[in-house]
Design goal:
The chain is of the alpha+beta class. The protein has one domain (2-39). The chain is built from 1 helix and 2 strands, in the order H-E-E. Strands 1-2 form a two-stranded antiparallel sheet. A hairpin with a 2-residue loop joins strand 1 and strand 2 (32-39). The radius of gyration is 11 Å and the shape is elongated. The protein starts with a helix and ends with a strand.
Length: 43
Amino acid sequence: MLEERLKYLAAQFNALSPQICTVEVEQVERHVHKFVGTPCGER
C-alpha cells in the first residue's frame, strides 16, 4: 500500500538524516501526504 511505502521511506529518511530526529508521514488531505521533520534539539 502507498501508506506503508511512505512509512518505509520515512524510516529510511530518518536513518539517513542525522540532522532530523523524527520524520513522520502526515495525511494532509485525502490522498496528499507530506513529510514532517523535527530537527534535533527543537521541540
